Amino acid sequence: MSLFDMRGIFFVSRYCRVSCFGDVNPIRPSDGQIFKGVFMNRWLITFFMLFSLSACATSPTGRSQLMLVSPESAVASSRQAYVQTIQPLQKDGKVDSDPALSRRVRLITGRIIAQAIISHPEAKKWQWDVKVIDADETVNAWCMAGGKMAVYTGIVNKLKLTDDELAQVMAHEISHALANHTAEKMSVAMASSIGTLGMAIATRDSDNRGAIMSGTVLAASLAVTLPNSRAAENEADVMGIKFAALAGYDPRAAGSLWEKMAKEGGSRPAEFLSTHPAPANRQATLAALAQEMMPYYLDKKVRPVYQLP
């Protein structure tokens, strides 16, 4: 029996009772309303399946990606979000308040951007920029779609990052942008919303709707959202360590970076429920990658620097 047939039976059984004589007595809306509900379920599922099949993309490492949101849309949204994030901080004097640190971040980032553009020429059109945000308790850095970046003073000062380690951070974040992970995350969120909407329609008259809906959200998170986030993190690690090595930064620093991250983070949830691979697993993977990247790092050629505004 198909899912659609089972859904129709569920819908009818909710609104019908069977008498002791075996006759079916309707205590439900009209047959037309039942048909409309079942048809809507079929339409939503069919539409989503067809739309998803037509919205697949391939990442730089060959991984399949769901792309319901175009990279261009993600760039436009990120540009607006960047302005909304940075402007209030600038008014409060929280942006680039340490000139020496800002110069250091810009030089390292500029060298990595130059390598990123060589590998991904389309990124030359991006409006690259990086800001250092004065927030000593925030251990974070990010790069939005389109190349808008921020580094928090907390990640540099609390972890006492070397230039090589800071390069790993920036290369990792830039790799997220180059691999269209922002558009992918937006697409996954959209897909999860569509699925949740379909379940809401299918169970709108169920006495157990609340329990079913909470289970649906959790299932979507475990089965769709989190695994994609973990895959994206692994992908950014692989791409980032190479960009940093090509830019002249020691790839072995990726291991020491995540050792510091592990100490800073303390106890962590199980890897299965984490958006990032567990530090021990990550360090092992990066240690192997570092050996592969050493020839790029040891190459004595001149490293170009992208001139940030």
UniProtKB/TrEMBL annotation:
Gene3D superfamilies in the cross-refs: Metalloproteases ('zincins'), catalytic domain
Top-level taxon of the source organism: Bacteria
Any Pfam family hit: Peptidase_M48
Keyword terms, alphabetized: Hydrolase, Metal-binding, Metalloprotease, Protease, Zinc
Span of domain Peptidase M48: 110-288
Transmembrane segments: none
CC per GO annotation: membrane
Keyword Metal-binding: yes
Keyword Hydrolase appears in the UniProt entry: yes
A molecular-function term among this protein's GO annotations: metalloendopeptidase activity
Cofactor note: Binds 1 zinc ion per subunit.
Co-factor requirement: Zn(2+)
UniProt cross-references to InterPro entries, sorted A to Z: Mito/Outer_Membr_Metalloprot, Peptidase_M48
GO biological process: proteolysis involved in protein catabolic process
Family of the protein in this entry: Belongs to the peptidase M48 family.
Entry protein name: Peptidase M48 domain-containing protein
Organism: Desulfotalea psychrophila (strain LSv54 / DSM 12343)
Taxonomic lineage: Bacteria, Pseudomonadati, Thermodesulfobacteriota, Desulfobulbia, Desulfobulbales
